[in-house]
Automatic annotation (TrEMBL):
Official protein name in the record: TonB-dependent receptor
Membrane topology label: Multi-pass membrane protein
Entry similarity comment: Belongs to the TonB-dependent receptor family.
Species, as recorded: Dyadobacter frigoris
Entry's localization field: Cell outer membrane
Keywords from the named record: Cell outer membrane, Membrane, Receptor, Signal, TonB box, Transmembrane, Transmembrane beta strand, Transport
């Protein structure tokens, strides 16, 4: 009986458990997971609403387009919706994984935009953010990122040095400071300022453009403030390519082409040079005999004597310029029976070697075209192989790249090798890890002495007289050693001797990260990034015995430095959608950055031989100098951003960041950078849907925020002392010592310096019309920088120590950015086309300078004429400064009635510049100096046209600027009697003479040192439009490619910079930045002998398999 009862109890218990388990199982939710991608590129879509039809149950996809949702019934219908895409409904049935591909309804709204420490879909962005994908970036094969960006983004101005591997400057929405205007670059989450602490190495030059997947430019503070003190000039976020799920895909991308010089200056030949010299000297000698700039009939003239051209009424071209002005048969240039010059030796052991009388040089009677000698055609090539692929648990993308560009300036070059590895793995359903690393090696030979320098080859090419040949009679370099042949240097010799002076750089750049889903909607991420750079430069300067200012001793300077920066940030991200109405995205995190830099350089002189194998410090037996130093800085930060969306129509963002920088003294070390923004999707409102059928999409954006700038050097708050073995000073304790090395003051400190703060307001509109065929992005902005940092020079009585940065004033930029695109198709879809245009404008104004509106901060005064660029209150930064002139005096009577000219003696006379008495005091003097011009354009613009017909494609891209002025400093050398160098044909043909009232230059006179003063004569209109790229492509049909075992295969031919429309007389109108460094924005728009852009003709191939 007990056994039966026990059995009955067990049976009933098991039955009840089964029933309840069944009931529980039937009531338990069914979990469905999946991924939502774009049909155009198969990339995951974030922010897609996934809801159960007929209920309020829903979720939203994460940054990768993935989602998970719990269902009450297996018959549920899931609805997938997102602004810019067609809605989809799918019956789940028994499926537990549902992947969906959404079709674009409006172009570009599906783009995933990488913002600070996270990502959003473009339709949710409320700040001013511009995006470029790999196709747009690589449409023009470019050496560096700046060239790839040029003209493609409204509000972004690019300055390129143009020489192979040269510097590049990116300026976003004008110039926000008198200090450093460079944006922050963030590559795969790792920040960098681009240029290293040595001022030479450049992250952007070692970055391989073929590895870039997308780029976002954060233009206003509401978008960039999460980067705080480093984002005052905008942020450029770069994401490199990732692997996708699928079998391995191999790619090979290559192009090869030739580069050719564009426009070169028109200079004088030898006879013209002699005639101009003679006319100028004759006028000078006989100036007192002139009446109205002419010699009366019967005037007895005194003619000049010239070491090369002799004396008399006309110049005579000699056979030899060294010995000066000699002719065939002269004993100094006699030949022996074998036809060899008897007074010439190349034997370095001869006692006569290095004596000027042995450098026999024949005159080039036709004239040497020095610009053509140094600017010649050169090849360019690029090769890249890549592989990518993966599974759901792991993906990879790897590449190897080789780039080689020979410069159009002979013996300049840039080579780069890069290796990249990007991987990501799903450890399990909750944990993901990955890494993105690139190691690169770059080797560069640039223009010796850099751009805009009177000692670079470009400047020497229009300074060396045409009578000087490239080589002397023995095949060695000729020079200016003769009398009356200027003091310049043979530019060909300079380039040949500099060809082995390479700048070598090795850089490791990347990060490793881990992500974990702590809860359903809560994700933690930790990323550690490193930027490690090794730099080496050996600069060997050989003897230069053929020049007027000869250098008889060689020298070698070896520079070595290394720099590393590590960045560690940690974030928590929370995403949730409530009732399918309220969408929240919250991110909070910390970031720590540390930088260390160390350098060493040494110099030796007097080497026995000049051979490359002998160029080591130990081989020098002369003067020995050594220098070294180190520096470091740190930044610690906390940040947070909250985003809220209501019904996908009303969007709100708020951001705050707290930075602590070691660069400021303790009292000013901490700063806060807040931002708020909002968006209203007008097109989702019922009134828009019902009444404006032509409107596909419209979103109004408003944003306000603050960012900062801390680029002031690492020890600005400290007064610094250093030893100097060449000088004797006092011990630090103040005790007087004997004549032994002591300490000297090298920098004043400033503990009161505080953060530079930029406050930005942005109002924008994104819209699309006619089912997305036409779209636009319009932004109006104002950005004001307060407490600008600048090293104000102390009084001369303070000594030679460097000035510290001080907060001196404020600056404002206001402008408009506009981007337009039209997408069309015809012929049954066989012919498709896209027309895109962008235009932007900014107005820069210095609103305050140190409390004194008359305070002036001049540019870099390393030119022969100085103080012609100034930054001053109530004017734009880097305004041109000088004298105004009102033509040329036509008669002596007119000159006599004009205000007295106190700039030089006897300046008011026929044929001289008529300077304007600006202050009206009746005298022309330095009080008449004023602002005379503006380097900032009224607007910049770009134009893109892409046409595709079946397998053929045509792409046209052009860019230009309008309304800016250029200070053509080259004219100082080419248009005035400066030294004895060559001159422009303009000086010969357009100088004033009696009967030529329309002349633009004063009368030729070799003693005129007033006309060369900075004036509006140097200013020229800098407007231009340049066809940057013309490309014709052919894509192999898929049917043929598949038979060959290939994926997409494309070949193309391309021309770059082929057509330039401009009135500028110089070689290249793209002169908007000077040396492309941080502090040089005080002297923009100056052409001082810059390396011109080349015309390129390229053929390329892109293939995958």
């Amino acid at each position: 009986m007990k056994q039966n009862l026990r059995f009955l109890f067990l049976t009933v218990t098991l039955l009840l458990l089964a029933i309840f388990s069944s009931i529980e199982a039937s009531a338990q939710d069914k979990r469905v997971t999946g991924k939502v991608v774009s049909s155009t590129d198969n990339i995951g879509l974030p922010g897609v609403n996934v809801t159960v039809k007929g209920t309020t149950t829903g979720t939203v996809t994460d940054a990768d387009g993935k989602y998970a949702i719990d269902l009450k019934t297996s018959g549920a219908i899931l609805v997938y919706s997102s602004i810019g895409f067609g809605k989809q409904e799918i019956v789940v049935g028994t499926k537990s994984v549902v992947d969906v591909s959404l079709v674009d309804d409006i172009k570009n709204l599906s783009e995933v935009v990488v913002t600070g420490y996270g990502s959003q879909s473009k339709k949710e962005i409320t700040g001013a953010v511009a995006t470029l994908d790999a196709k747009q970036l690589l449409s023009t094969p470019s050496t560096n990122l700046g060239q790839a960006l040029q003209g493609k983004v409204p509000g972004v101005v690019i300055g390129n040095e143009n020489s192979p591997g040269g510097g590049v400057s990116v300026r976003i929405r004008g110039f926000g400071t008198i200090n450093d205007n460079s944006p922050l670059y963030v590559v795969d989450g790792v920040p960098t300022k681009g240029v290293g602490a040595n001022g030479v190495s450049n992250t952007l030059n070692t970055l391989n453009l073929n590895d870039i997947e997308s780029m976002q430019i954060l233009k206003d503070a509401s978008a960039a403030s999460i980067y705080g003190s480093r984002a005052g000039n905008g942020v450029v976020i770069i994401t490199t390519k990732r692997g996708k799920v699928g079998k391995p895909v191999f790619t090979y991308d290559t192009y090869y082409g030739t580069q050719r010089p564009g426009k070169l200056l028109s200079m004088l030949n030898t006879q013209q040079y002699a005639d101009l010299t003679w006319e100028a000297r004759t006028n000078t000698i006989n100036q007192a005999k002139m009446v109205d700039g002419a010699f009366p009939a019967g005037t007895s003239l005194t003619y000049p004597t010239h070491a090369q051209f002799g004396n008399g009424a006309t110049p005579k071209i000699p056979d030899y310029i060294f010995p000066s002005g000699t002719y065939e048969g002269d004993p100094k240039v006699a030949k022996d029976a074998n036809g060899n010059y008897v007074n010439y030796t190349t034997d370095v052991n001869s006692a006569d070697f290095n004596k000027t009388k042995w450098l026999i040089t024949k005159a080039n009677k036709e004239g040497t075209n020095w610009l053509k000698e140094i600017y010649q055609p050169a090849p360019i090539q690029n090769h890249q192989i890549g592989v990518s692929g993966g599974t759901e648990s792991g993906r990879y993308a790897m590449s190897l790249n080789y780039f080689n560009q020979q410069g159009i300036m002979i013996n300049t070059s840039f080579k780069r090798y890069t290796l990249r590895s990007n991987t990501e793995f799903n450890v399990n359903k909750r944990i993901r890890v990955g890494q993105n690393f690139q190691v690169g090696y770059a080797s560069r030979v640039g223009q010796p002495n850099g751009n805009s320098n009177e000692s670079n080859p470009t400047t020497f090419a229009y300074r060396v007289p045409p009578i000087v040949p490239v080589y002397d009679v023995a095949g060695n370099f000729a020079g200016t050693r003769g009398t009356d042949v200027d003091n310049s240097v043979n530019p060909v010799s300079l380039l040949v001797r500099n060809k082995d002076n390479r700048q070598n750089e090795v850089r490791l750049f990347g990060n490793a990260y881990a992500e974990i889903d702590i809860l359903k909607n809560l994700t933690a991420k930790s990323s550690f990034g490193i930027d490690y750079n090794l730099y080496n430069y050996r600069n060997y300067t050989p003897r230069d015995i053929e020049s007027a200012e000869a250098r008889s001793t060689q020298s070698l300077t070896t520079t070595n430095n290394y720099e590393w920066t590590w960045t560690w940030y940690n974030t928590l991200t929370y995403n949730i959608v409530l009732n399918n109405l309220h969408k929240f995205n919250i991110i909070a995190g910390t970031e720590s950055i540390k930088n260390y830099y160390e350098n060493f350089d040494a110099t030796r002189t007097n080497f026995l031989v000049d051979g490359l194998d002998n160029r080591y410090l130990s081989a020098g037996t002369g003067v020995q100098t050594n220098n070294g130093g180190a520096a470091n800085w740190r930044l610690a930060s906390e940040f947070a951003r909250a985003s809220y969306g209501l019904k996908g129509r009303y969007l709100f963002d708020a951001t705050v960041r707290r930075d602590r920088s070691s660069r400021f003294a303790a009292a000013n070390r901490v700063a806060y950078f807040p931002a708020v923004s909002g968006g209203w999707v007008l097109s989702e409102e019922n009134f828009a849907k019902s009444s404006a059928t032509w409107l596909s999409y419209a979103k109004l954006r408003v944003g306000w925020g603050q960012t900062g700038n801390q680029e002031i050097g690492n020890y600005n708050s400290f007064t610094q002392y250093a030893t100097n073995p060449a000088l004797s000073f006092y011990d630090l304790n103040g005790a007087k010592t004997s004549a032994v090395p002591g300490y000297e003051l090298v920098q004043f400190g400033n503990v009161k310096a505080k953060w530079e703060t930029t406050t930005s307001t942005n109002i924008g509109l994104d819209a699309a019309f006619f089912k997305g065929k036409f779209d636009l992005a319009l932004d109006w902005y104002t950005r004001t920088t307060s407490d600008m940092l600048f090293p104000v020079s102390p009084p001369l009585t303070a000594g030679v120590a460097a000035a510290p940065f001080q907060n001196i004033g404020s600056m404002r930029n206001r402008g408009v950015d506009l981007g337009l695109n039209y997408h069309g198709a015809t012929l049954g879809g066989d012919l498709t086309y896209t027309i895109g245009a962008n235009v932007s404008t900014y107005r820069n104004l210095v609103t305050k300078t140190n409390g004194d509106p008359n305070t002036q901060y001049f540019g870099i005064n390393d030119e022969r004429i100085q103080n012609f660029v100034v930054t001053q209150q109530n004017f734009p930064i880097s305004s041109f400064f000088g004298y105004k002139h009102d033509g040329i005096f036509q008669t002596d009577a007119e000159a006599k009635e004009a205000p007295k000219n106190n700039l030089g003696s006897n300046e008011n006379r026929a044929g001289r510049f008529k300077f304007v008495d600006v202050n009206g005091d009746g005298v022309i003097d330095t009080k008449d100096l004023s602002i005379i011009g503006n380097p900032h354009p009224k607007f910049t613009y770009g134009l893109n046209i892409n046409v595709n017909y079946k397998n053929f494609g045509l792409a046209l891209f052009g860019a230009g600027v309008q309304g800016n002025e250029i200070f053509n400093y080259v004219k100082y050398w080419t248009d005035f009697p400066t030294f004895f160098g060559n001159k422009s044909t303009r000086m010969l043909n357009e100088s004033w003479r009696p009967g030529n009232p329309g002349a633009i230059l004063p009368q030729l006179n070799s003693s005129d040192q007033v006309s060369i003063l900075p004036s509006d004569y140097y200013l020229e209109k800098g407007s231009y439009f340049r066809f940057k790229n013309i490309q014709l492509t052919y894509s192999l049909p898929k049917s043929i490619a598949s038979k060959l075992g290939l994926g997409p295969c494309r070949i193309y031919v391309q021309g770059q910079n082929l057509i330039t429309i401009t009135k500028y007389s110089g070689m290249d109108p793209e002169i908007n930045l000077r040396n492309y460094g941080a502090g040089n924005d005080r002297q923009i728009g100056v052409d001082g002998g810059s390396y011109p852009a080349s015309k390129q003709y390229i053929v390329g191939l892109n293939v995958s398999f």
